[in-house]
Design goal:
The complex is a heterodimer of chains A (about 260) and B (about 775).
Chain A: E1 6-11, H1 18-27, E2 31-36, E3 48-51, H2 65-68, H3 73-81, E4 85-89, H4 91-98, E5 114-116, E6 124-132, E7 150-157, E8 161-163, H5 166-174, E9 178-183, E10 200-204, E11 210-213, H6 229-233, H7 238-242, H8 248-263
Parallel strand pairs in A: 1-2, 1-3, 3-4, 4-11
Antiparallel strand pairs in A: 5-8, 6-7, 6-9, 9-10, 10-11
Chain B: H1 4-16, H2 22-32, H3 38-47, H4 50-53, H5 58-61, E1 71-73, E2 80-87, E3 90-100, H6 102-107, H7 109-125, E4 130-140, H8 146-166, E5 170-177, E6 186-196, E7 213-218, H9 228-231, H10 241-245, H11 253-273, E8 278-281, H12 286-297, E9 301-305, H13 318-323, E10 329-334, H14 339-349, H15 352-355, E11 360-368, E12 372-377, E13 380-386, H16 387-392, H17 410-420, H18 428-436, H19 445-448, E14 459-461, E15 469-471, E16 480-486, H20 489-494, H21 496-512, E17 517-526, H22 533-553, E18 557-563, E19 577-586, E20 603-607, H23 618-623, H24 635-650, E21 654-659, H25 664-674, E22 681-684, E23 693-694, E24 700-701, E25 714-718, H26 723-732, E26 737-744, E27 748-751, E28 754-757, H27 758-773
Parallel strand pairs in B: 4-5, 9-12, 17-18, 22-27
Antiparallel strand pairs in B: 1-2, 2-3, 3-6, 4-6, 7-10, 7-11, 8-10, 9-11, 12-13, 14-15, 15-16, 16-19, 17-19, 20-25, 20-26, 21-25, 22-26, 23-24, 27-28
Helix pairs in contact in B: 1-2, 7-8, 7-11, 8-11, 11-14, 21-22, 25-27
The chains are: A alpha/beta (about 260), B alpha+beta (about 775).
């Protein structure tokens, strides 16, 4: 394979979404590889990082809290500070918040905002849509994404409720850290199913190179996974049914950003 | 022959509290020619328990059909395997296992339900498969009862906590509420795996394995779960509740998550080296049970050093190390040349010791050619028994009586129905509201939304979007499969045999309703105390029913489980509950569809023939019918109806389908509308053409109650332009297909002018369990 940007999908003890995340990364043409917690030294040679969903270290203390202190996060944090792209989905998002990388307004590994237990107190798996709610210059990690883009995804988590002190929430909103909010399929904002402050579905850091998103776009990334008309339209067409679409657009924008950065 | 040694053995057994009978203990002492050690007695206690040996059920289970062209691996190992299909020159199989965790779930519901998943997942894993799905049939007591409410909450929490953490999607299941489960909850679990036919690993020491290593992998052994197998085979007694809690294992799904992934890495290493090995999970009977069964199946022996087992506490007695049922453990038999690779993958790459204290992979013994199981602890032999004698178990031919089922004559059934549904019209929508609010019909969303149904990214139809969940397990391949579950306790209470037949039909109908071809069945048989002839008779009758239905529909059983003694000390037996799972394959995922109504102007067809048989139905309870008549079986007609639905999917005629089950046709149509994102409703206007029976005197007889009749059949939304072709297809198969109405572009149910908004009906359907389990929401 020609030399191109390499993307590490970082696996912690308790990660459970690494396969579909790797599949999405590869489907958009990136060279993705799984890297386990026992091999932090391997991370040096990667150009971008994805932290997938699951329950790293049993979500002890708070979801993502122990993982944020794992040695395998050292090279990820270094890379983020060097401006490399780091994407966290679900548990990965929680880890990025606990590592202090998003919203990134405080010191490392001292979170200013966290993804707390859902308002229901329980794990919940529901289909959702999320909408880009910042200006494009705030999310260079999603190269070429259009204003107000609506992405289908599954919110499958027990701890997805953004919680932070009032002044931090105000900062998140004011300074463009509120990358994604929940919406309906037409893009109309809806209440977060988990009770998140600001109806937040995703946070971005100041430089726009670290993005944390709670719902899983990779679980609605192929036509056969869609719950809307698009699947009905593809009935009888095998290739169209198996084709990447919907949530995969999120990864296409990530790939565009990673590729542009790599060739720059 | 009675000797002092036999009496000493019996006395020891009673002191230790094993569940073996006096006669069984004497047999063991006689065979050994001495008083057995404590470790030996506990080993026999587990191996000869109902749970492990199927001692009461085995002779009847032989009646089930277990062979066919779709079977890659039949009954006999930890799980069966059915053929999924070919992809890129390889044959793929779906591993199917079924387990109950009823007793543990009654005593400590959270841990009991969680370890139910944990155990069955290992049964799939040890076939060399990736675990790709689970489904839970649940039978709860009445929610009016406080303890039942607690159990019903905790069981769901336990399933969620375990399944979500290991990252295996929950793709279906069912839930019924019935007073017969007040003292004995039923928690069954189906687990599914994906494996290439050539990569199947068997649960036996391979040929030529003498001298190989026995490797124990997983959690550090502790006292939890000691005596679990024999506990599962006892009647639950209130007074023992506290004592029984110790027999329930402690789950660690996070460790399991890592063990599963490490095992996948081992599978890859084995494929690379082309090695044939043995692999089996530790379940009932613990380490001794597992390694003994591995070696017995391979015709070899074992020598195990118990002090090599990693333990969580110091100085555990040898019988606890040997027999305890600590969770999250597996056993390998591998050539010594492979052992370093195996240990490195578990202990270093996946760093089990870092993940959980004391967790590891360690060599604990050797395979021998003695056909004996020898275990030593601190240089003392604590177990030395003939493997065949230990694992061959015991058999009982329990006496049974099958009670005849009385069915009222037709005239009485007509009177019964007409009293509740007077001829000349009635408020059908009002009846529908009551049916939708029924505990066995109302939305299960607030339960299945607690489970991750989409992790792994292979889910094509998540739970709740159709009768059966659908997975596309091989990325890039169009091969898909569906899982359906049947087993209505209200039928079971009336006629266990017919209930078993209807359970097979329901499971088959569910997979058919997403366009799948049924290829394999799995059963979990939940019954009362087999020492009571009527209870044993219900079991025997149910097995006969399963057998007849499976043969008639030509779908083999590939795995199963028996759970007896589901009886409380107050004498409350569970309703006879043969629960059946069906795996159906879909050659191309493009031909499946959710059950949601898709577009306005489609034709609504009903396939199948309703009968004047309302026994055990939801409408019988709602409208106060007293009948006990269950549907007569017409397997040929049902099989043809299934063929029509499948062909309808493949040819693009059928846009959505549901089988006719709890609540009947009108309920099925309402539920299809509830799933519609586009706000599609239904107008039922050809109602005259529907459900006219010819009575014994040749007269037409019909009644509105037929809209709620439960019978083997389907509702199909058919593309308007293909309606004629679909009707023709049905006619060609000799299937009664009646067009009863059409879909409409407004979210309304309209039955001959009786109207209700879909949103209003949906809120009735959503409410009961949402109020109990918490928030739920519809598709976005």
């Amino acid at each position: 394979m020609a030399a191109g940007p390499r993307v590490a999908v970082v696996v912690f003890p308790g990660t459970n979404s690494e396969d579909e995340t790797l599949r999405a990364v590869r489907a958009v043409g990136l060279q993705g590889e799984l890297v386990h917690w026992s091999q932090p030294e391997a991370l040096a040679r990667f150009d971008a990082f994805v932290l997938p969903g699951g329950f790293a270290y049993e979500d002890r203390i708070r979801a993502g809290a122990v993982a944020a202190h794992d040695a395998v996060m050292d090279p990820v944090i270094e890379a983020a500070q060097a401006g490399k792209f780091v994407l966290g989905i679900c548990n990965g998002a929680q880890i990025l918040a606990e590592a202090g990388l998003v919203p990134g307004t405080g010191p490392l590994r001292l979170p200013t905002a966290a993804f707390a237990p859902n308002a229901s107190g329980r794990f919940q798996s529901v289909h959702v849509h999320v909408k880009l709610s910042v200006t494009l210059d705030r999310v260079p990690i999603l190269g070429g994404i259009e204003d107000g883009a609506v992405i289908p995804a599954w919110a499958s988590h027990g701890d997805g409720r953004l919680a932070a002190p009032a002044d931090e929430l105000a900062r998140i909103e004011r300074d463009g850290h509120l990358a994604f909010i929940y919406c309906d399929r037409h893009g109309n904002p809806v209440s977060a199913p988990n009770g998140a402050a600001l109806d937040c579905a995703g946070l971005v850091n100041r430089d726009g190179n670290v993005l944390a998103i709670m719902p899983h776009p990779e679980r609605d990334g192929w036509t056969f996974q869609h719950l809307d008309d698009s699947r009905d339209v593809a009935r009888g067409d095998t290739a169209a049914t198996l084709a990447p679409s919907g949530g995969i657009r999120f990864f296409e924008h990530f790939a565009q950003a990673v590729r542009e950065r790599f060739s720059a | 022959m009675m000797t002092a040694a036999h009496d000493d053995a019996v006395a020891l057994g009673r002191t230790l509290g094993v569940a073996l009978s006096d006669d069984e203990i004497r047999r063991i002492a006689e065979h050994l020619g001495r008083v057995p050690s404590a470790t030996e007695l506990f080993a026999f206690d587990a191996q000869w328990s109902e749970h492990c040996s199927y001692k009461s059920s085995r002779e009847h289970l032989k009646k089930l059909p277990t062979e066919g062209p779709t079977v890659l691996l039949g009954v006999g190992e930890d799980a069966g395997i059915v053929r999924l299909g070919e992809w890129q020159g390889e044959t793929y199989g779906i591993v199917v296992a079924h387990e109950s965790h009823n007793h543990p779930s009654q005593v400590v519901p959270f841990e009991g339900a969680a370890t139910g998943i944990g155990g069955i997942v290992r049964d799939v894993l040890c076939m060399g498969a990736e675990v790709i799905g689970v489904a839970d049939p649940l039978r709860f007591g009445r929610l009016e009862n406080e303890h039942c409410r607690y159990v019903a909450q905790q069981v769901v929490d336990g399933i969620a906590a375990y399944g979500n953490a290991i990252g295996v999607p929950n793709v279906g299941g069912d839930v019924f509420f019935d007073s017969s489960f007040d003292d004995n909850v039923l928690v069954n679990v189906v687990a599914l795996g994906l494996v290439k036919e050539k990569d199947i690993i068997h649960s036996r020491a391979p040929e030529g394995s003498v001298g190989w290593d026995i490797v124990l992998v997983g959690k550090a052994t502790d006292r939890s779960g000691f005596g679990g197998a024999s506990f599962s085979s006892l009647t639950l007694d209130e007074d023992d509740a506290e004592a029984n809690k110790g027999a329930v294992q402690v789950p660690d799904p996070f460790l399991k998550n890592v063990i599963m992934r490490a095992s996948y890495a081992v599978f890859a290493a084995l494929r690379e080296q082309g090695l044939t090995v043995g692999f089996k999970d530790l379940g009932a009977g613990g380490l001794a049970g597992c390694s003994a069964e591995l070696c017995a199946a391979g015709g070899v022996g074992a020598e195990v050093e118990l002090e090599r087992v990693s333990t969580a506490q110091r100085d555990l007695p040898p019988e606890v190390i040997a027999i305890g049922e600590t969770q999250e453990r597996l056993c390998w038999i591998v050539p010594p040349s492979f052992t370093p690779t195996l240990l490195a993958l578990y202990n270093e790459m996946y760093s089990l010791p870092r993940v959980a204290r004391g967790a590891c992979a360690a060599v604990i013994g050797k395979v021998t050619d003695t056909r004996r199981y020898v275990a030593r602890y601190r240089n003392e032999t604590v177990m030395d028994v003939d493997l065949e004698f230990l694992t061959g178990g015991v058999r009982y031919s329990r006496p049974y009586t099958i009670a005849p089922v009385e069915i009222e004559p037709r005239d009485a059934r007509v009177r019964d129905v007409e009293a509740a549904f007077p001829p000349g019209g009635s408020d059908l929508i009002g009846r529908l509201r009551a049916v939708l609010a029924h505990r066995d019909v109302c939305s299960r969303a607030s339960i299945y939304q607690r489970y991750d149904g989409v992790v792994r990214g292979c889910t094509a139809i998540p739970p709740g979007y159709a009768d059966a969940g659908v997975l596309v397990p091989i990325p890039g391949a169009p091969l898909a499969f569906a899982v359906g579950i049947g087993g209505n306790p209200r039928y079971g209470a009336i006629d266990p045999r017919r209930a078993a037949e209807l359970a097979v039909v329901e499971a088959v109908a569910q997979v058919t309703a997403v366009g799948a071809l049924p290829v394999g069945l799995t059963d979990c048989l939940n019954f009362g105390d087999p020492t009571i002839p009527e209870q044993m008779g219900a079991f025997v009758a149910a097995v006969e029913g399963l057998s007849e239905a499976a043969r008639a529909l030509d779908v083999p059983f590939v795995s199963g489980n028996v759970s007896l003694y589901n009886r409380s000390s107050s004498g409350n037996h569970v309703a006879p509950s043969p629960i059946v799972g069906c795996v159906g394959t879909i050659a191309d995922v493009t031909h499946t569809a959710s059950a949601a109504l898709k577009r306005a102007g489609s034709a609504l067809f009903v396939l199948g023939v309703p009968q004047l048989a309302y026994g055990g139905t939801v409408i019988a309870e709602v409208a106060g019918l007293s009948t006990r008549a269950l549907p007569q079986m017409d397997y040929e007609g049902f099989a043809e109806a299934c063929a029509v639905v499948r062909a309808g999917f493949e040819r693009g005629f059928v846009l959505a389908s549901r089988d006719v089950s709890d609540g009947g046709v009108l309920t099925a149509i309402a539920e299809m509308a509830f799933g519609s994102l586009a706000g599609i409703g239904a107008e039922l206007n050809h109602t005259d053409a529907f459900f006219v029976e010819i009575d014994a005197r040749g007269r037409n007889w019909t009644n509105n109650a037929v809209w709620f009749a439960e019978f083997p059949g389907f509702v199909c939304e058919v593309d308007a332009e293909r309606a004629a072709a679909f009707a023709e297809l049905a006619a060609k198969h000799g299937v009664r297909a009646r067009e009863v109405g059409e879909t409409i572009g407004r979210a309304e149910l309209d039955y001959n002018g009786q109207r209700a908004p879909i949103a209003e009906l949906r809120s009735i359907w959503d409410a009961p369990l949402r109020d109990f389990y918490g928030a739920s929401s519809g598709p976005s």
